[in-house]
Amino acid sequence: MSLNKVVLITGASSGIDAAIGRELSAAGAKVMLGARRTNRLDTLAEEIRANGGEAMTRRLDVTDRADVAAFAKTAPGLGTRRRDRQ
């Protein structure tokens, strides 16, 4: 079974959040990875893509509300789905 979802992951540059990104991508989800350490995000996204997954990255500071909103808007497919629900 393949997850046909877009998943946003904060704190994805290391630890359990990076592992979640790998696992969800392996299950077929498109992942949007966010964290302050962009060099680590880029490395993780390259790994995911090399394994056949789809990943995007964006620098993210979760203490900044505007940054979080911009992160969500950048994620692939989210804008279309949100409009469809209204």
From TrEMBL:
SUPFAM superfamilies: NAD(P)-binding Rossmann-fold domains
Keyword flag tRNA-binding: no
Pfam families linked: adh_short (PF00106)
EC number: 1.-.-.-
UniProt GO cellular component terms: membrane
Coiled coil: none
InterPro entries to which the protein is assigned, alphabetical: NAD(P)-bd_dom_sf, SDR_fam
Keywords, ordered alphabetically: Oxidoreductase
GO molecular function: oxidoreductase activity
Superkingdom per UniProt: Bacteria
Enzyme class: oxidoreductase
Family: Belongs to the short-chain dehydrogenases/reductases (SDR) family.
Record-linked PANTHER family: DEHYDROGENASE/REDUCTASE SDR FAMILY MEMBER 7B, DEHYDROGENASE_REDUCTASE SDR FAMILY MEMBER 7B
Protein's UniProt name: Enzyme
